[in-house]
Amino acid sequence: MNIYFFPSELLLFALVYFTAQYSVTGPGHPVTAIVGEATVLPCHLSPRMSAENMEVRWFRSEFTSVVHLYLHGKDQYGKQMPDYRGRTELLKAGITDGNVSLQILNIRHSDEGQYYCFVQDGSFYEEALLELKIAGQLLLEVYYQ
Ligand SMILES: *[C@@H]1O[C@H](CO)[C@@H](O)[C@H](O)[C@H]1NC(C)=O
Question: Does residue 40 have its Cβ closer than 6 Å to ligand 1?
Fold first, then answer.
């Protein structure tokens, strides 16, 4: 009797094992940054595993609106949107631990909005959606008076 159930359980196990390799997790709340300053958009793989040999793509509304691309073990600037040129750094200190957080320098008002943190390993990929909010300098000056 059991022999009839075994193959489907094995198939299910194989499906889960080979497809659900990791999930991609953002901070779970909007990140607030200040104009002119640097900010980090947190993103990591769960469970923790090295993303060193994966594709890490940070993009805005479209897959091709590239904020930062890391591929074949290197940062690739060829397809980066001009707006972000020289202002992004994929923080590599934790990349072997699955931490693929992105630092953006010299924050502008136009940086406000949604960001996708997309991580692909072979044919498998997952992504997280993050929200970046910008606080203006003026607002802050008023706040500190
Ligand atoms: C990932 O790296 C960033 C930048 O170094 C750090 O601020 C953050 O705490 C790390 N996150 C995790 C979950 O390790």
Answer: yes
